[in-house]
Amino acid sequence: MTKGIAIAGTIAVDEIKVIDQYPQKSELTTIKSVQKSIGGAVSNCSVGLAKIDESLVVEAIALLGDDERGHFLYDRLSKYKNIRLEHMKFTGETPFTDVIQDLSDKTRTFFTFKGNSTLFNEHSFELTKLNARILHVAYILLLDALDQQDSEYGTKMAKLLKKAQDLGIKTSIDIVSENNNRYENIVPPSLKYTNYCVINEYEAGKTAGIELRDKGGNLLASRIKQVLFKLKDFGVQDWVVIHTPEGSFGYDGSTLHSVPSLKLEKESIKGTVGAGDAYLSGLLYGAYKELSLLDSMKIATAAAASSLFEEDSTSGIKSFPELITLYNSYPKRDETFI
């Protein structure tokens, strides 16, 4: 059997609640609609990859609760013939996230219940039984057991990634956007054993200790190069990629690349939930197909854009040929920001 891509770690049910505008503390706002969907990297990236290429073998690895949310996730993933669920285990309570979608500025705010994700560790699946060329594990800072210290490797996550690499599996990581100061201690040990580091500007800045937006929210593009270099110096072996709403930036150890986002009509954007996971799916697929970093970033940009056409994380994602057409047909943002 041809080897594919394995996605491990965080899974959840997303309850997407659409409001006109996010309220101040103690204020009331009306929920206009509620939609339940799959969420978390394991769900989003597995489905994203499955839709990009129906022939690709995708292994989903996570803990599910033996509850209504757990069975909802299992049933939804089962609908895709190329997603393998042999590594799923039922225990504890299924994580869920309340996603508050603000119609006024298209932003979203997350309230998450970790559930059994705190139990997910290096023993939750067997690396030797994977049929994968690439293993993506997400999210650092959200998987408590893997964030624990390890005397030899720094963290349990780093130890897991090292074991995967020793088996000839390329590794990929993502980080959760969290308002704390844990990044600089917990993330770097894993980067030493990472082939593909694909994160947003907030996570990259916090890890490197360099702010990438000013107080007004403007992207400090002049600092991107410094952050890419610093992340690479932590030990990332192949690609470092930082994705932002304005565009994405990548470094492969020899060449810097930048790809502006697609210009979409505001009326066509229904939601931004899962755009980062969609971007990651496109980039991992490019790596799997041995495309260049630049071409992979273009596919990832199109995947992220396609996800915006629907409220949930995965419904809008297109197939690989459709993503190429989408990228080529839409105008790009002004490249002067790069």
Automatic annotation (TrEMBL):
Signal peptide: none annotated. Coiled coil: none annotated. Keywords: Kinase, Transferase. Residues 19-314 form the Carbohydrate kinase PfkB domain. One of its GO terms (molecular function) is kinase activity. GO terms for cellular component: cytosol. This is Carbohydrate kinase family protein. It comes from Metabacillus litoralis.
